[in-house]
Amino acid sequence: MRDVAGGAIGYEAGLDALTVAPAAEVDAALGASLRDAFERLFKGGWQPAELHRVVARLGDPVKAALVADGATAYGKRFADVDSRWQEQVARLPGATRRRPDRISLIDSSLGLLIELRRLPVIEVLIPPPGAVADKSDNKILERVRALLAKAESTDFPAEAEAYSAKAQELIARHSIEEALTSADRAEVVPFARRIGVDHPYESEKASLLDAVARANHCHTVWSPELGFSTVFGFDADIDGVELLYTSLLVQANRAMSRDEPAKGKARIKAFRRSFLVAYAIRIGERLAQVTREALQSHSDLLPVLRNRDVQVREVMQKAFPRTVRARGSRIDSLEGWESGRAAADEAELG
After folding, report:
1. At what angle do helices 334-346 and 265-295 cross, to 10 degrees?
2. CB burial class (10 A; 0-12, 13-18, 19+) of residue 77?
3. Core-most of 1, 18, 61, 337, by most CB within 10 Å?
4. Weakest-pLDDT range from 9-23, 120-134, 180-194, 316-330
5. Average pLDDT for residues 168-182, to the nearest whole number?
6. Domains in the chain: boundaries
Protein backbone atom coordinates (compact mmCIF):
# COMPACT_ATOMS: atom_id res chain seq x y z
CA MET A 1 0.00 0.00 0.00
CA ARG A 2 2.83 2.37 0.85
CA ASP A 3 4.51 1.72 -2.51
CA VAL A 4 1.30 2.53 -4.40
CA ALA A 5 0.61 5.75 -2.52
CA GLY A 6 4.27 6.71 -2.67
CA GLY A 7 4.43 6.38 -6.45
CA ALA A 8 6.86 3.43 -6.53
CA ILE A 9 4.28 1.38 -8.46
CA GLY A 10 2.84 2.49 -11.78
CA TYR A 11 -0.69 3.80 -12.22
CA GLU A 12 -2.35 0.71 -13.70
CA ALA A 13 -0.72 -1.73 -11.30
CA GLY A 14 -1.37 0.62 -8.41
CA LEU A 15 -5.05 0.96 -9.28
CA ASP A 16 -5.42 -2.81 -9.47
CA ALA A 17 -3.79 -3.19 -6.06
CA LEU A 18 -5.95 -0.52 -4.45
CA THR A 19 -9.25 -1.93 -5.72
CA VAL A 20 -8.68 -5.31 -4.03
CA ALA A 21 -7.02 -4.10 -0.82
CA PRO A 22 -9.00 -3.56 2.42
CA ALA A 23 -11.01 -0.34 2.22
CA ALA A 24 -9.72 1.05 5.54
CA GLU A 25 -6.09 0.67 4.45
CA VAL A 26 -6.75 2.20 1.03
CA ASP A 27 -8.59 5.20 2.46
CA ALA A 28 -5.87 5.85 5.05
CA ALA A 29 -3.02 5.56 2.55
CA LEU A 30 -4.61 7.71 -0.16
CA GLY A 31 -5.83 10.28 2.34
CA ALA A 32 -2.41 10.68 3.94
CA SER A 33 -0.67 10.92 0.55
CA LEU A 34 -3.11 13.56 -0.72
CA ARG A 35 -2.71 15.58 2.48
CA ASP A 36 1.07 15.51 2.06
CA ALA A 37 0.78 16.56 -1.58
CA PHE A 38 -1.57 19.43 -0.73
CA GLU A 39 0.74 20.58 2.06
CA ARG A 40 3.77 20.61 -0.27
CA LEU A 41 1.96 22.68 -2.87
CA PHE A 42 0.20 25.11 -0.50
CA LYS A 43 3.46 25.76 1.37
CA GLY A 44 5.15 25.98 -2.01
CA GLY A 45 3.15 28.95 -3.25
CA TRP A 46 0.00 27.44 -4.75
CA GLN A 47 -3.24 29.17 -3.81
CA PRO A 48 -6.58 27.32 -3.60
CA ALA A 49 -8.08 28.90 -6.73
CA GLU A 50 -4.92 28.25 -8.76
CA LEU A 51 -4.64 24.61 -7.78
CA HIS A 52 -8.34 24.02 -8.40
CA ARG A 53 -8.11 25.67 -11.83
CA VAL A 54 -5.14 23.65 -13.03
CA VAL A 55 -6.76 20.39 -11.89
CA ALA A 56 -10.22 21.28 -13.25
CA ARG A 57 -8.61 21.76 -16.68
CA LEU A 58 -8.01 18.00 -16.72
CA GLY A 59 -11.76 17.51 -17.14
CA ASP A 60 -12.43 15.25 -14.14
CA PRO A 61 -14.95 16.90 -11.77
CA VAL A 62 -14.14 14.39 -9.02
CA LYS A 63 -10.49 15.47 -8.98
CA ALA A 64 -11.54 19.12 -8.86
CA ALA A 65 -13.88 18.38 -5.94
CA LEU A 66 -11.05 16.58 -4.12
CA VAL A 67 -8.92 19.73 -4.45
CA ALA A 68 -11.72 21.87 -3.02
CA ASP A 69 -12.11 19.47 -0.10
CA GLY A 70 -8.35 19.32 0.41
CA ALA A 71 -7.96 23.11 0.48
CA THR A 72 -10.83 23.45 2.93
CA ALA A 73 -9.42 20.79 5.25
CA TYR A 74 -5.90 22.24 5.05
CA GLY A 75 -7.09 25.71 6.05
CA LYS A 76 -8.96 24.33 9.06
CA ARG A 77 -5.73 22.99 10.50
CA PHE A 78 -4.53 26.51 11.33
CA ALA A 79 -5.80 29.26 13.58
CA ASP A 80 -4.29 32.02 11.41
CA VAL A 81 -5.36 32.02 7.77
CA ASP A 82 -4.93 34.97 5.42
CA SER A 83 -8.32 36.45 4.45
CA ARG A 84 -7.48 36.23 0.73
CA TRP A 85 -6.77 32.50 1.15
CA GLN A 86 -10.09 32.05 2.96
CA GLU A 87 -12.00 33.94 0.26
CA GLN A 88 -10.58 31.71 -2.45
CA VAL A 89 -11.60 28.57 -0.57
CA ALA A 90 -15.10 29.95 -0.04
CA ARG A 91 -15.51 30.54 -3.78
CA LEU A 92 -14.44 27.04 -4.84
CA PRO A 93 -17.24 24.93 -6.36
CA GLY A 94 -18.80 22.36 -4.06
CA ALA A 95 -18.91 18.61 -4.46
CA THR A 96 -20.13 16.98 -7.67
CA ARG A 97 -23.86 16.34 -7.95
CA ARG A 98 -23.48 12.58 -8.30
CA ARG A 99 -21.45 10.78 -5.67
CA PRO A 100 -18.87 8.62 -7.50
CA ASP A 101 -18.74 4.89 -6.85
CA ARG A 102 -15.80 3.60 -4.86
CA ILE A 103 -13.75 2.42 -7.85
CA SER A 104 -14.17 5.78 -9.59
CA LEU A 105 -13.19 7.61 -6.40
CA ILE A 106 -10.04 5.52 -6.01
CA ASP A 107 -9.23 6.04 -9.69
CA SER A 108 -9.63 9.84 -9.42
CA SER A 109 -7.72 10.02 -6.12
CA LEU A 110 -4.76 8.08 -7.49
CA GLY A 111 -4.80 10.09 -10.73
CA LEU A 112 -4.95 13.35 -8.76
CA LEU A 113 -2.02 12.26 -6.62
CA ILE A 114 0.06 11.67 -9.74
CA GLU A 115 -0.89 15.10 -11.16
CA LEU A 116 -0.13 16.92 -7.90
CA ARG A 117 3.34 15.37 -7.74
CA ARG A 118 4.08 16.72 -11.22
CA LEU A 119 3.35 20.31 -10.24
CA PRO A 120 6.35 22.48 -9.38
CA VAL A 121 6.77 24.71 -6.36
CA ILE A 122 6.06 28.33 -7.33
CA GLU A 123 6.59 31.74 -5.75
CA VAL A 124 4.64 32.45 -2.55
CA LEU A 125 2.45 35.50 -3.21
CA ILE A 126 -0.13 35.00 -0.46
CA PRO A 127 1.03 33.67 2.93
CA PRO A 128 -0.18 30.06 3.33
CA PRO A 129 -2.19 29.11 6.41
CA GLY A 130 -0.05 29.44 9.52
CA ALA A 131 2.09 32.27 8.10
CA VAL A 132 -0.19 35.29 8.04
CA ALA A 133 0.64 38.73 6.69
CA ASP A 134 -2.91 39.86 6.01
CA LYS A 135 -3.83 42.61 3.60
CA SER A 136 -6.60 44.99 4.57
CA ASP A 137 -9.01 45.82 1.81
CA ASN A 138 -9.46 49.29 0.37
CA LYS A 139 -12.78 51.11 0.55
CA ILE A 140 -12.20 52.73 -2.85
CA LEU A 141 -11.82 49.30 -4.43
CA GLU A 142 -15.04 48.14 -2.80
CA ARG A 143 -16.81 51.08 -4.45
CA VAL A 144 -15.16 50.19 -7.78
CA ARG A 145 -16.34 46.57 -7.49
CA ALA A 146 -19.89 47.71 -6.80
CA LEU A 147 -19.89 50.09 -9.78
CA LEU A 148 -18.49 47.47 -12.13
CA ALA A 149 -21.06 44.92 -11.00
CA LYS A 150 -23.80 47.39 -11.92
CA ALA A 151 -22.14 48.19 -15.26
CA GLU A 152 -21.94 44.50 -16.14
CA SER A 153 -25.51 43.69 -15.15
CA THR A 154 -27.43 46.50 -16.82
CA ASP A 155 -28.88 46.19 -20.32
CA PHE A 156 -28.80 49.95 -20.87
CA PRO A 157 -25.54 51.23 -22.47
CA ALA A 158 -25.91 54.75 -21.09
CA GLU A 159 -26.34 53.44 -17.57
CA ALA A 160 -23.38 51.08 -17.95
CA GLU A 161 -21.26 53.93 -19.25
CA ALA A 162 -22.10 56.11 -16.25
CA TYR A 163 -21.24 53.36 -13.76
CA SER A 164 -18.03 52.38 -15.54
CA ALA A 165 -16.87 55.96 -16.08
CA LYS A 166 -17.16 56.57 -12.35
CA ALA A 167 -15.30 53.32 -11.62
CA GLN A 168 -12.49 54.28 -14.00
CA GLU A 169 -12.25 57.70 -12.37
CA LEU A 170 -11.86 56.08 -8.96
CA ILE A 171 -9.22 53.63 -10.21
CA ALA A 172 -7.16 56.40 -11.82
CA ARG A 173 -7.41 58.60 -8.73
CA HIS A 174 -6.44 55.70 -6.46
CA SER A 175 -3.36 54.88 -8.55
CA ILE A 176 -2.17 58.49 -8.81
CA GLU A 177 -2.65 59.17 -5.10
CA GLU A 178 -0.77 56.01 -4.21
CA ALA A 179 2.15 56.97 -6.46
CA LEU A 180 2.30 60.49 -5.03
CA THR A 181 2.19 59.41 -1.38
CA SER A 182 4.61 56.49 -1.70
CA ALA A 183 7.35 58.10 -3.78
CA ASP A 184 9.70 58.50 -0.80
CA ARG A 185 8.64 55.44 1.19
CA ALA A 186 11.20 52.65 0.97
CA GLU A 187 8.75 50.03 2.26
CA VAL A 188 6.47 50.46 -0.77
CA VAL A 189 7.86 47.96 -3.28
CA PRO A 190 6.57 46.10 -6.34
CA PHE A 191 4.62 42.90 -5.85
CA ALA A 192 3.21 40.15 -8.04
CA ARG A 193 -0.21 38.55 -8.28
CA ARG A 194 -1.34 35.53 -10.27
CA ILE A 195 -4.56 35.95 -12.27
CA GLY A 196 -6.29 32.97 -13.83
CA VAL A 197 -6.46 32.71 -17.61
CA ASP A 198 -8.97 30.01 -18.51
CA HIS A 199 -9.58 28.15 -21.73
CA PRO A 200 -10.81 28.37 -24.38
CA TYR A 201 -8.78 31.08 -26.15
CA GLU A 202 -6.20 31.38 -23.36
CA SER A 203 -3.66 33.14 -25.58
CA GLU A 204 -6.13 35.84 -26.57
CA LYS A 205 -7.30 36.32 -22.99
CA ALA A 206 -3.68 36.55 -21.80
CA SER A 207 -3.15 39.26 -24.43
CA LEU A 208 -6.12 41.21 -23.07
CA LEU A 209 -4.72 40.97 -19.56
CA ASP A 210 -1.33 42.13 -20.80
CA ALA A 211 -2.90 45.11 -22.60
CA VAL A 212 -4.73 46.16 -19.42
CA ALA A 213 -1.55 45.68 -17.36
CA ARG A 214 0.71 47.70 -19.66
CA ALA A 215 -1.72 50.60 -19.63
CA ASN A 216 -1.62 50.57 -15.83
CA HIS A 217 2.15 50.49 -15.24
CA CYS A 218 2.34 46.69 -14.82
CA HIS A 219 3.93 43.78 -16.69
CA THR A 220 2.75 40.19 -17.13
CA VAL A 221 4.26 36.75 -17.66
CA TRP A 222 1.86 34.09 -18.95
CA SER A 223 2.28 30.47 -17.80
CA PRO A 224 -0.07 28.58 -20.16
CA GLU A 225 0.69 25.15 -18.73
CA LEU A 226 -0.41 26.31 -15.27
CA GLY A 227 -3.45 28.34 -16.29
CA PHE A 228 -2.44 31.79 -15.02
CA SER A 229 -0.52 34.97 -15.75
CA THR A 230 1.67 36.63 -13.13
CA VAL A 231 1.12 40.38 -12.98
CA PHE A 232 4.02 42.46 -11.64
CA GLY A 233 3.50 45.98 -10.35
CA PHE A 234 2.61 48.02 -7.31
CA ASP A 235 -0.43 46.92 -5.32
CA ALA A 236 -2.70 49.82 -6.25
CA ASP A 237 -1.98 49.29 -9.95
CA ILE A 238 -2.43 45.50 -9.78
CA ASP A 239 -5.76 45.98 -8.02
CA GLY A 240 -6.95 48.14 -10.90
CA VAL A 241 -5.64 45.68 -13.49
CA GLU A 242 -7.46 42.75 -11.91
CA LEU A 243 -10.76 44.61 -11.64
CA LEU A 244 -10.53 46.03 -15.17
CA TYR A 245 -9.55 42.73 -16.78
CA THR A 246 -12.38 40.84 -15.09
CA SER A 247 -14.97 43.42 -16.10
CA LEU A 248 -13.70 43.78 -19.68
CA LEU A 249 -13.71 40.01 -20.14
CA VAL A 250 -17.35 39.88 -19.04
CA GLN A 251 -18.21 42.66 -21.49
CA ALA A 252 -16.23 40.95 -24.28
CA ASN A 253 -18.01 37.63 -23.80
CA ARG A 254 -21.38 39.34 -23.85
CA ALA A 255 -20.60 41.26 -27.05
CA MET A 256 -19.03 38.21 -28.69
CA SER A 257 -22.10 36.06 -28.02
CA ARG A 258 -24.31 38.80 -29.40
CA ASP A 259 -22.39 39.25 -32.65
CA GLU A 260 -21.04 35.81 -33.53
CA PRO A 261 -22.33 33.96 -36.64
CA ALA A 262 -25.21 31.57 -36.13
CA LYS A 263 -23.79 28.51 -37.89
CA GLY A 264 -20.54 26.72 -38.58
CA LYS A 265 -18.28 25.48 -35.79
CA ALA A 266 -15.06 26.43 -37.62
CA ARG A 267 -16.46 29.82 -38.56
CA ILE A 268 -17.53 30.53 -34.97
CA LYS A 269 -14.11 29.51 -33.63
CA ALA A 270 -12.30 31.77 -36.12
CA PHE A 271 -14.72 34.60 -35.32
CA ARG A 272 -14.15 34.34 -31.56
CA ARG A 273 -10.38 34.17 -31.83
CA SER A 274 -10.21 37.14 -34.19
CA PHE A 275 -12.74 39.03 -32.06
CA LEU A 276 -10.65 38.66 -28.91
CA VAL A 277 -7.39 39.62 -30.66
CA ALA A 278 -8.94 42.81 -32.03
CA TYR A 279 -10.68 43.51 -28.72
CA ALA A 280 -7.41 43.27 -26.76
CA ILE A 281 -5.52 45.53 -29.18
CA ARG A 282 -8.20 48.20 -29.23
CA ILE A 283 -8.74 48.09 -25.46
CA GLY A 284 -4.99 48.56 -25.02
CA GLU A 285 -5.09 51.63 -27.25
CA ARG A 286 -8.03 53.12 -25.38
CA LEU A 287 -6.58 52.46 -21.93
CA ALA A 288 -3.22 53.94 -22.93
CA GLN A 289 -5.01 57.12 -24.06
CA VAL A 290 -6.96 57.33 -20.79
CA THR A 291 -3.74 56.89 -18.81
CA ARG A 292 -2.00 59.68 -20.76
CA GLU A 293 -4.93 62.02 -20.19
CA ALA A 294 -5.02 61.22 -16.46
CA LEU A 295 -1.33 62.09 -16.14
CA GLN A 296 -1.49 65.39 -18.04
CA SER A 297 -2.07 67.33 -14.83
CA HIS A 298 0.59 65.32 -12.97
CA SER A 299 3.74 65.84 -15.04
CA ASP A 300 5.74 65.76 -11.79
CA LEU A 301 4.87 62.06 -11.57
CA LEU A 302 6.74 61.03 -14.73
CA PRO A 303 10.16 60.53 -13.05
CA VAL A 304 8.45 58.60 -10.25
CA LEU A 305 6.66 56.36 -12.73
CA ARG A 306 9.85 55.70 -14.69
CA ASN A 307 11.62 54.68 -11.48
CA ARG A 308 8.71 52.45 -10.48
CA ASP A 309 8.77 50.78 -13.89
CA VAL A 310 12.46 49.96 -13.46
CA GLN A 311 11.70 48.42 -10.07
CA VAL A 312 8.82 46.37 -11.49
CA ARG A 313 10.98 45.03 -14.32
CA GLU A 314 13.73 44.07 -11.86
CA VAL A 315 11.27 42.08 -9.74
CA MET A 316 9.88 40.37 -12.84
CA GLN A 317 13.36 39.51 -14.11
CA LYS A 318 14.27 38.00 -10.76
CA ALA A 319 11.15 35.82 -10.68
CA PHE A 320 11.34 34.89 -14.39
CA PRO A 321 14.96 35.22 -15.55
CA ARG A 322 14.17 33.42 -18.82
CA THR A 323 11.00 34.25 -20.74
CA VAL A 324 9.98 33.99 -24.38
CA ARG A 325 7.65 36.25 -26.28
CA ALA A 326 4.36 34.54 -27.11
CA ARG A 327 3.55 34.23 -30.80
CA GLY A 328 0.57 36.32 -31.86
CA SER A 329 -2.70 34.69 -32.88
CA ARG A 330 -3.76 34.45 -36.51
CA ILE A 331 -6.62 36.58 -37.76
CA ASP A 332 -8.85 34.25 -39.76
CA SER A 333 -12.10 36.21 -39.59
CA LEU A 334 -12.44 39.79 -40.80
CA GLU A 335 -15.96 39.73 -39.40
CA GLY A 336 -14.60 38.80 -35.97
CA TRP A 337 -11.84 41.42 -36.16
CA GLU A 338 -14.23 44.24 -37.00
CA SER A 339 -16.74 43.11 -34.40
CA GLY A 340 -14.01 42.91 -31.75
CA ARG A 341 -12.78 46.44 -32.40
CA ALA A 342 -16.34 47.73 -32.38
CA ALA A 343 -17.02 45.98 -29.07
CA ALA A 344 -13.82 47.42 -27.62
CA ASP A 345 -14.96 50.91 -28.63
CA GLU A 346 -18.28 50.24 -26.88
CA ALA A 347 -16.67 48.72 -23.76
CA GLU A 348 -16.78 50.72 -20.57
CA LEU A 349 -13.30 51.20 -19.18
CA GLY A 350 -14.26 50.59 -15.61
Report:
1. 40
2. exposed
3. 18
4. 180-194
5. 70
6. 2-118, 139-346
